[in-house]
Amino acid sequence: MSLQTSKTLVEAGKQLIKRPEVKNEVGEFVKHRLPPLPSLKDLLHLYKVKAKKHLSQNFLLNKRICNKLVAYSGISNGSTVVEIGPGPGNITRCILEKNPRELFVIEKDRRFLPMLEMLADAASPGQMKIIIGDVMDYSLENLFPQELKVDWHSLSPPIHFIGNLPFNVSTALIIRWLRQMHNKTGPFSYGRVNLTLTFQLEVAERIVAPVMHLQRSRLSVMCQNLAKVRLCDKIKGASFVPSPDVDVGVVKFRPRREPIINDVPFDIVEKFVRTMFHLRRAYLVKGLRNLYPRELNHLTDAMFEEADIDPTHRSVMLDIEEIGRLVKVYWKFCQQHPGLENYDFRAKMKTPKFVTKSLSD
């Protein structure tokens, strides 16, 4: 396709007169077909857009794979969808073909704005909304209509998050969402919103890794504690443009009605699990001693004894229920020794004053 033809199709898409109705006479959403549009390769060439390495951009241009990704998410007629990092919009096209009620796309790179605006013009009126900015800067708490809110223990709301995430933000973003999931804030103030996301395959395997698996890690425990996770698919790196040196995994998150480790603040669980996997090949007792300053080190043995866990086990050997028993004892000790939860063995400082005070008491 020539550039002149591409430009003509772009203008045709923008000038297309669309029917204003999005529902039929019985209130059902009608199928909306997108007009003929230029290929993503032509648009990238037309707007002279190349992937930026420092933003970890890898475009998924294979429509068959994009359709599979959308199918895994469960997006259907009338869903409300948030797409993270749409880039040139190939997954966006597949979402629009499912005729969602609303589609919000959050894109950090302004170079993609003309391509996304073309899709918004081609969609039903008001169906697609573009947010230019970093998803890490948005809480997304008031993004959707209040009528979409449901009770946490009921079925999931008709809200779906989907995204081909850049490798450099994927772990930080999922930890942020897990915290919001735990606190029922951000998008999770609407209920148990499902997430379908891509990760570097090694990270995806960590997320779903079971007990005794070589990839079992802090991320495994944090994700599985709060959500049911499933590795839906593996995508070859060659399917992306430019091709990364690694393959990609598609992971679906379904928030649990209750976390396995309950009644403990998220940051306490995260700190405990991070410390636990810091020395993953050593005995548990060696790593978890780092939770306590020297003056309170006797609490390490007391923690294992009260939780009824063998201190010579290794971190990959414990399931989440067993980890939860240790975490709850640690949290109890934190409440008995104010300030203990802030102790950081990596900080180069003397014993905090709270330790001396608690011991003298």
Show the helix and strand layout:
Layout: H1 3-15, H2 40-46, E1 59-60, H3 63-73, E2 80-84, H4 90-96, E3 102-107, H5 113-122, E4 128-132, E5 159-164, H6 167-183, E6 194-200, H7 201-208, H8 218-226, E7 227-235, E8 240-241, E9 248-255, H9 266-276, H10 284-288, H11 298-307, H12 320-336, H13 353-360
Parallel strand pairs: 2-3, 2-5, 3-4, 5-6
Antiparallel strand pairs: 1-8, 6-9, 7-9
Helix pairs in contact: 1-5, 3-4, 6-8, 7-8, 9-12, 11-12
EC number: 2.1.1.-
Pfam family, one: RrnaAD
Binding site for S-adenosyl-L-methionine: 58, 60, 85, 107, 134, 164
Structure description:
- The protein is α/β, with parallel strands linked by helices and 361 residues long.
- It is built from 13 helices and 9 strands.
- A 7-stranded mixed β-sheet has the order 4-3-2-5-6-9-7, sandwiched between helices.
- S-adenosyl-L-methionine binds at residues 58, 60, 85, 107, 134, 164.
- It holds the Pfam family RrnaAD.
Spatially, the strands of the biggest sheet line up as 4-3-2-5-6-9-7
Supply the CATH class of the largest domain: Alpha Beta
User: What's the SSE pattern?
Assistant: HHEHEHEHEEHEHHEEEHHHHH
Name the shape in a single word.
elongated
Number of domains: 2
Overall mean pLDDT stands at 85
Our measurement of the CA-to-CA distance between the termini, rounded to an integer number of angstroms, reads 80 Å
Q: Would you tell me which CATH topology of the largest domain applies? A: Rossmann fold
Counting DSSP H or I runs of 4 or more residues, the number of helices is: 13
* CATH architecture label name of the largest domain: 3-Layer(aba) Sandwich
Q: How large is the share of residues in beta strands?
A: 5-15%
Task: State Rg.
Answer: 24 Å
Number of DSSP-assigned strands:
9
Describe the biggest sheet? 7 strands, mixed
Name the helicity range. 25-40%
Unreliable stretches covering 5 or more consecutive residues: 5-10, 12-26, 355-361
At the fourth level of CATH, the homologous superfamily of the largest domain is Vaccinia Virus protein VP39
Structural class based on helices, strands and sheet pairing: alpha/beta
